[in-house]
Give the backbone structure.
Amino acid sequence: MYTLYYYPGNASLFPHMLLRELGVPFELALVDRAQNAQHSAEFLKLNPNGRIPVLVDGGLVLFETAAIALHLCDRHPEAGLAPPVGTAERAQFYKWMIHLANTPQPEFRLWFYPEQHVPSPALAEAVKQTAGVRLEAMFDRIAEQLEGREWLLESGFSAADLFLCMLVRWGRGLPRPARDVPALGAHARRVLARPAVQAALAAERIAAPLV
């Protein structure tokens, strides 16, 4: 059985939704960020970076959100949440997973925690504003590539769509919320309608607005 160390609404939401889509046995272990539990000695043994999520799979301890998702897709190919290895669609899947992990996801750290990236608190607001501008441009580019289809991949729904939905949720506080970009809002509604996604949100007690 898998164990997912999580905190509601954090980056752990993506692998949580994925586990429910896979329909495999797992348990949730809360890492209470309100009590700084991610910096506890116990948690740092799992992830010395002090960040959530962590997945425990038997003797394997894995951190980094995208790595966890790729591992789960590889462990359960029968679920069809990633295209077959070696295909062109699999390459497109890798592209989206790496893009989402390397481009909008880290930009959100500047948006949510600007004070961690400046030598003076007086500069924090400028960092937040510029991060917001960059995020809006990133979401516009993603939306352009979504136009005319339901999912990121031409072959259909994949784990990458869960990843994007989580990031669109994080973007609800931007000056122009990500959901207000028509293609992204429609995509998020399709993902949120999935029973496994609804079950993950309910388990984490995430209330509206969902995105």
